[in-house]
Write a structure and sequence with these properties.
The protein has 410 residues and is α/β, with parallel strands linked by helices. Helix content is 35%, strand content 23%. The protein has ten helices and 17 strands. It has helices at 6-19, 31-45, 52-55, 119-143, 164-171, 221-237, 282-299, 323-336, 350-358, 383-401; strands at 57-64, 67-74, 83-88, 108-110, 113-115, 151-156, 180-183, 191-195, 197-206, 210-211, 249-257, 263-264, 267-276, 304-313, 342-345, 363-365, 380-382. A six-stranded mixed β-sheet has the order 1-2-6-3-7-16, with helices on both faces. Strand 4 and strand 5 form a beta hairpin.
């Protein structure tokens, strides 16, 4: 025996099963894993007898072809705001650099860790939420009672790209401004609310092709892009920092241009990711790019720059007085003995989309794993984190659903 409880082993097995399903984006996408989660939930709902079974529903929407979002809805006996656990189904691409002993889809266990693509971001969190909802469904079955507060579990597609899944869930009415929305991203044992804003640009320069031996006959689009990059980086680095969110940053994540070394390039495209902290705004980010284009055009005669915004998310401040935060701090203290600390989320999450589009202050992130392991080769989640987060989610759901956690002591 490994000394772990049956519940802990269930969390490990379920996370393994999810990791072994390829849901990479781009790649296999979410079809198989969405069917797995739906079937898993249906099996547990079907154990509920009588009329209560008809009140609990599973719904699907398809924001993108063959890419679905899923919702388990458990109605409440009052009109209190719903408590929502929010998990995304996709992962980043499988990538290179995995150890032979721990392949990307292996779900390998070693040294108290479970390795695999998505183990941290966020199949560990998905498994923890699924098991907490299983606890709720089992309690409904045994007591034939619905919770006082509606409880929902929403699974989205496309989180690792443009977040069109959470946007579609908002349009479908699954997510709104009144709910308590908790996503299950890896948070290092902390509750994370505040997010930097995120603006993505596709910056294009057109030039004039010529032989490299007579560059004066052409206009170098790559050189113009280099001027723009330097301007943007220098300007962003000079922006003031926010006391909570820190500095605005910029990454030039991808670049394409040119034909061969001996040809003056007549085209160059750069993809830019800006993470915005107040006082920086999406409008300021646009002005920075526009100024950079103007400077580049002046520096490299004959070039012309343009841009397209491909993603636009505002910064989200923390909400220290939000009821969800208080409830989650209480649940972590009861489940682990210590209330969770709060911190900034350095990325952008589905709950941040809800916070921004629905003006909802009751949004937060809490889940197993270390944020710095997300998207990396040899990604892992500690087994102890799976057990901890499952316990916290269960405590939270029962405290908010029935108002007396002792109903679920084992």
């Amino acid at each position: 025996m490994d000394g772990r409880s049956q519940e802990d082993r269930e969390a490990t097995r379920l996370t393994q099963a999810l990791v072994r399903i390829d849901s990479s984006d781009p790649g296999a996408y979410e079809g198989e894993i969405e069917r797995f989660v739906k079937s898993w939930l249906e099996e547990r709902i079907d154990k509920i007898a009588g009329s209560l079974r008809q009140e609990i529903s599973i719904e699907e929407i398809e924001p993108l072809p063959n890419r679905r979002c899923l919702r388990l809805h458990i109605p409440g006996e009052t009109d209190a705001p719903a408590l929502v656990l929010l998990s995304h189904l996709d992962t980043v691409t499988l990538g290179e650099g995995w150890d032979d002993e721990a392949p990307a889809l292996g779900g390998t266990i070693s040294g108290g860790r479970l390795y695999g693509r998505g183990a941290c971001d966020m199949k560990g969190g998905l498994a923890s939420a699924m098991l907490a909802m299983e606890d709720v469904l089992a309690h409904i079955s045994s007591t034939q009672s619905l919770p006082r507060r509606p409880l929902d579990f929403v699974c989205t597609c496309d989180e690792e790209d443009f977040m069109r899944g959470s946007e579609a869930a908002i349009k479908a009415g699954w997510l709104d401004g009144s709910q308590w929305v908790l996503d299950t991203e890896p948070t290092d044992g902390m509750v994370r609310q505040a997010h930097k804003g995120r603006v993505w640009f596709e910056l294009r320069f057109k030039g004039i092709t010529a032989h490299a031996s007579t560059p004066q006959e052409g206009a170098d689009a790559i050189c113009a892009a280099a001027f723009a990059i330097a301007h943007i980086r220098k300007t962003v680095d000079s922006l003031p920092e926010d006391p909570e969110l820190g500095a605005t940053t910029v990454t030039f994540g991808q670049i394409e241009g040119g034909y061969r070394p001996y040809v003056v390039p007549d085209a160059c495209t750069v993809w830019i990711d800006m993470r915005l902290a107040p006082p920086a705004t999406p409008d300021l980010a646009r002005r920075i790019v526009e100024d950079a284009i103007a400077e580049a055009e002046d520096a490299i005669f004959g070039t012309h720059g343009s841009y397209q915004v491909t993603g636009d998310r505002p910064a989200i401040p923390s909400s220290p007085h939000a009821p969800l935060l208080a409830a989650l701090e209480d649940a972590t203290e009861k489940a682990t003995g210590t209330p969770a600390e709060t911190a900034v989320f350095t990325g952008y999450t589905d709950s941040a989309v809800v916070a921004s589009l629905c003006h909802n202050p009751n949004c937060a992130s809490y889940g197993p794993g270390r944020l710095k392991m997300a998207h990396k080769p040899n990604e892992y989640v500690p087994l102890a984190d799976l057990a901890r987060v499952h316990a916290v989610f269960r405590e939270l759901l029962f405290a908010q659903g029935w108002g007396h956690q002792e109903l679920f002591r084992r």
